[in-house]
Design a protein that fits this description.
about 725 residues, nine-stranded antiparallel β-sheet, elongated
């Protein structure tokens, strides 16, 4: 077989050829930015016009170049893989440009490209580098095949009226139907699966059905291969999203799955409006778009579960989603998201977004403190997002009390992340993977993903006896989710809690996290109370993965300056260097670090015989696959459980340019945790003598009264939680 085929030159095609590579996002962003910043006049193009022009210029520059269609060979990230991806983008863009501007040279190119693929696709067997999941023919896994078909089928729908009947028959029979049959009847294990791979497959086949006028493909896509409704696109809408629009696998995969969901739904709405697909489950797809946006900070998605941390709101999936949501809702807050994305798709709805941005209709998007329930009925835990203010770059706390998240889930129940000033402060590792970097295990998830990144010790979550939650068993994890406590926001106090009894055989854990605003502190602070309840002897480790440079502690560290040893032998511990240790002073641990211009401190009330371990990722990593990130771990042994109360505070400013430092030391002097039955009280004293308190009860009854004696004074409140302000706050009239 020939190594590759090429299309004829532009002259032979009777038109011009588009570049095999789509214009880079950076070029689109810079052009869009230039348009956005220019004075809006009748002579100036909107951001979308600039995007179109940029694409056209790139196409014109490559029109004489041949389109190479290589025989499939390489896995993800390899030459043939990337070439077929580029060709799909090329074909898609050509179809979209024809639909938008009516220039037949784009339709002619797209048609010729599809005919060229129709000539070779039937002769390709399974991919030689087939992945462990369902393999493809053009790509190593049929997920990529679905993505290719989703793009090309849309282009065919746009340009088919320009083709002869013979050309249509060839493309439909040898390429589109051939691929659709392979993706459906030929890959039932993927097509009928309730999973993001299944979403891409059903959407691709359904769009093909609409493109070629075959209702059978559409019905199979919507209802599953046997059309019973037990599988298929509609079933996926029912199962994969919670009533709040949260996607079971987490924000990274919510972003990924969003594109086939919204694009196929848009086609269903256009061709079968009687299905009212955007109204299904109380508008679940519209909710999913908004929820995807809410799950970002600094433009990047929360990196829980198997998440590559560089993915953010400018990904094409959400660019499509925002444009479609704007078409459906007219919500001008979405325009600010689109403006931040800095790029547009070649679609009519994206053009409308750009026009309205240029017309000055943009309003701020409403980033909220919110609980996103997980599971089909919203009862399988939740992702809680607590924001200090409407400013999306202000302090933000993300508490992961979700379900497992299927095979892409990590074992970190009751874990959290903290953000400030547009950056991660207490961070999550995300996934151990170099996507499409062939040199790094072919772009697969690395072995360290299962061995470290998924393990509990890799997260800001409590570890018992150096073993991961559920013993690191995904099937067990999928059957068990945290039980949620009350979540509320009354302005000065924003709080969430959850508990789980099944992460370990004889240990029950609960965690309460609150964001408090009080005049005793210049900014909001975070209170963290984590408890483990057991009648057996256990070792407890509570890690904090901090981002920045260690500045000071209230204890002396015995650093391992010349030799290092791994912290443990398994369950992720083998990947952590032990770089130092210390003993807390008078039951208190206080650690401060600096990130950019802001200081951050964690002050903790810890049990007796506690050890503070300083660690760094990177042990047992001969291929340097993991990032070298620091952590400190609060370790204690106990025969009857443990409780650790911490206050996390941002403070001060460091400016090396003009050489000044303000408030580099923490404001917190001490943290006390007092218990009285099921009622608890966190007492926070500042170095100025101000006292702030937080009352916590295990009774969720809003009308129940609670009392805890603190230093001889009865602290009484009603309901599950209460904030006791400092005198300074009261004096300030807040």
């Amino acid at each position: 077989m020939r190594a590759a085929i090429t299309l004829f030159s532009a002259l032979a095609l009777g038109g011009t050829m588009m570049s095999c590579k789509a214009p880079s996002s950076s070029s689109v962003q810079s052009s869009t930015g230039a348009s956005t910043n220019a004075t809006a006049t009748a002579q100036q193009a909107s951001g979308f016009d600039v995007t179109m022009k940029t694409a056209e210029v790139a196409i014109e520059a490559q029109m004489a170049a041949p389109l190479v269609i290589p025989v499939p060979k390489d896995p993800g990230g390899g030459y043939t893989h990337e070439q077929h991806k580029s060709n799909a983008t090329l074909i898609y863009n050509a179809g979209q440009l024809y639909e938008l501007n009516g220039d037949k040279k784009y339709a002619e190119f797209a048609g010729k490209a599809m005919l060229a693929y129709a000539d070779v696709y039937p002769g390709w067997g399974l991919h030689p580098a087939k992945k462990e999941q369902s393999p493809g023919r053009m790509f190593w896994q049929n997920l990529n095949e679905s993505m290719w078909l989703l793009n090309v089928s849309q282009s065919y729908a746009a340009i088919k009226d320009t083709l002869t009947q013979e050309q249509r028959d060839t493309i439909e029979t040898d390429l589109l139907r051939n691929m659709a049959d392979f993706m459906s009847d030929g890959s039932p294990e993927t097509f009928n699966k309730v999973h993001n791979h299944g979403t891409w497959a059903t959407a691709a086949v359904g769009l093909t059905g609409y493109a070629i006028g075959d209702d059978d493909y559409v019905e199979q896509a919507l209802l599953g291969l046997d059309k019973s409704g037990d599988a298929g696109f509609l079933k996926q809408m029912d199962i994969l999203f919670s009533p709040d629009g949260y996607y079971n696998e987490g924000p990274y995969y919510q972003r990924f799955a969003l594109m086939p969901f919204v694009i196929f739904a848009q086609a269903v709405e256009k061709n079968n409006p009687e299905r009212k697909i955007f109204e299904k489950r109380d508008g679940i797809l519209k909710k999913a778009i908004y929820t995807t946006i809410q799950q970002n900070y600094g433009g990047l998605f929360f990196p829980i579960n198997d998440a590559i941390k560089d993915k953010g709101i400018s990904t094409r999936e959400l660019v499509h989603g925002v444009a479609i949501a704007y078409e459906l809702t007219g919500d001008k807050g979405l325009l600010s998201v689109a403006k931040a994305q800095g790029r547009f798709m070649l679609t009519p709805e994206s053009r409308k977004v750009a026009q309205d941005i240029a017309a000055g209709k943009t309003e701020a998007f409403d980033y909220k403190t919110m609980r996103l329930g997980d599971g089909v009925d919203g009862t399988q835990g939740a992702l809680d997002i607590i924001r200090a203010s409407a400013d999306p770059d202000d302090l933000a706390l993300v508490v992961k009390n979700t379900s497992q998240g299927l095979g892409h889930g990590h074992f970190d129940k009751l874990g959290f992340l903290l953000y400030d000033a547009g950056k991660e402060i207490l961070r999550d590792y995300g996934a151990a993977r170099f996507l499409n970097v062939e040199a790094k295990y072919g772009g697969h998830y690395l072995a360290e993903n299962n061995k470290f990144a998924k393990q509990t010790i890799a997260h800001n979550a409590l570890v018992v006896d150096e073993t991961s939650h559920f013993g690191g068993d995904v099937e067990v994890g999928n059957k068990n989710a945290p039980t949620l406590g009350t979540f509320f926001d009354n302005g000065n106090l924003k709080i969430t809690s959850a508990e789980i009894e099944t992460a370990y055989p004889d240990v029950a854990m609960d965690r309460t996290m609150a964001m408090i605003t009080d005049a005793a502190f210049p900014r909001a602070i975070v209170v963290d109370l984590i408890e483990a309840h057991s009648e057996s002897a256990h070792k407890y480790d509570l890690p904090f993965y901090y981002n920045g440079q260690l500045i000071e502690t209230n204890f002396k560290i015995a650093a391992d300056t010349t030799t290092r040893k791994p912290l443990g032998a398994k369950n992720g511990y083998e990947y952590l260097w032990r770089v130092g240790s210390a003993k807390p002073v008078n039951g208190a641990s206080q650690i401060t670090w600096l990130l950019d211009s802001t200081f951050y401190s964690v002050t903790s009330s810890v049990p007796e015989a506690t050890e503070i371990i300083f660690a760094e990722i990177g042990a047992n990593d001969p291929n340097f696959n993991l990032r070298r990130e620091p952590a400190f771990i609060i370790r204690t042994n106990s025969n009857d459980g443990v409780s650790i109360a911490s206050v996390i505070e941002p403070h001060g400013e460091y400016n090396p340019t003009v050489e000044f430092t303000i408030a580099s030391h923490p404001h917190v002097k001490s943290v006390q945790h007092i218990e009285s039955g099921t009622d608890e009280y966190i007492r926070i004293e500042t170095k100025d003598g101000e006292v702030v308190g937080l009352g916590i009860s295990g009774d969720m009854d809003e009308g129940a009264s609670h009392t805890v004696q603190v230093d001889g004074t009865n602290m009484t409140w009603t309901g599950p939680y209460s904030l006791f302000h400092s005198e300074k706050h009261k004096t300030a009239g807040n």
